[in-house]
Amino acid sequence: MTIARPRPESLLPLTHAVCHILLSLADADRHGYGIAKEVAVRTNGGVRLGPGTLYGTLSRMVEAGLVEEVDGRSRDSRRRMYRETRFGRDVVRAEARRLAGLVGIARAKALLGPERS
Length: 117
Description:
Elements: H1 16-24, E1 30-31, H2 32-42, H3 51-64, E2 67-70, E3 81-84, H4 86-108
Antiparallel strand pairs: 1-3, 2-3
């Protein structure tokens, strides 16, 4: 039986934790510590996901169908591995489009400099 999913846009805006978790899983399956480490590195330490926030958010994301647990992927059997679902990918793409639109408005109003290539 297929679970009917809402439109990705209906989940926007994403919380910072959900957005960062989905972005961290966009290119690789990761366990919780790997997610937290990747987010901290990518944000130069600006975002740190504590264990309570991270695992509580992951649990809700599994229930919402944004991520799924992956069996047998970690060398350490105590660690749960997570993968972004197709729905999760659609949601984070919708969020990226939403944020890009806001950046475009900010540039048009001279609040940000022009995009550099």
